[in-house]
Amino acid sequence: MSLKAMIVRIKGNSLDDGPGIRSVVFFKGCPLSCIWCHNPECISTLQELHYDPEKCIGCDSCIELCPEKAISITNPFFVDRSSCSVCMKCASVCPAAALTPLGTWLEPRAIVDDVLRDKPFFDNSGGGVTLSGGEPALHLDYSGRLLSILKENNIHTLVETCGHFDLTLFREHLLPFIDTIYIDLKLIDPEEHRRYCGLTNELILENIVKLHELSRKEKFEILPRVPLVPGITATTNNLTSIARFLQKFGITKIELLPYNPLWGEKLYCTGRPDPYSSKHLLRQWMPREDLNKYHRLFADYGFHQY
Length: 306
What we know:
The protein is an alpha/beta fold. 32% of the residues lie in helices and 19% in strands. The relative contact order is 0.14.
């Protein structure tokens, strides 16, 4: 039986997901449920229906065809997700592609064939392919096979991970084919992590330390990344605790990720209500002076920042 995983999209020409020009493969499904997730459409492991109101031309073809009568112009989300069976009949007749499947089952070879078209850009820029999501480590056999084929084609590989995985299985299936790991470190306090991300962080912290130790002996790099979420991760207490934790284990490299509030716009397209008003802190861009302050904090601890 062939390996398949549900892929949300393959994004080419990326400059934000690793060195050089990259293609990014977004997996569907994540063990965490961070309330600020920049890819909320990737959290669920299930295929979903995506609705883009800007593309809709009002032809009503989907309304007439829907067997559950789940589509209505009077519905604030256009689609009643509690009634929708995700049969995708509406998407099949939508002439403007306003309704589309969110998540497609793909074999590893199909992804490789897609990204190989950009190999000249990878080679000339020092780029490659990044597995992201969602969480690539949810699909160990699949991700391992995909990474191994990429390495057979001399493509630089990078995995972006939340860090919540079984390290023994990760080492067996993925690590032999990885050049670089970007691993998130959001919150030090385990209960705060549970509150905002759905699970505690003990496994994540343990994996960061063990992967750092392994990177000293094996041929891969690891870079902890801290998303700066206003009022949650971006507090002096949390960031100081992160700096001290990493410093204790000899980790001196880090990347601070500036906060982007535009993820809220993605919620509507999958029928998820936005819990925050336009004036809420999580709907605001982070002031430059705050970003500079947090960079200085890590600089004072001697960190090399990307």
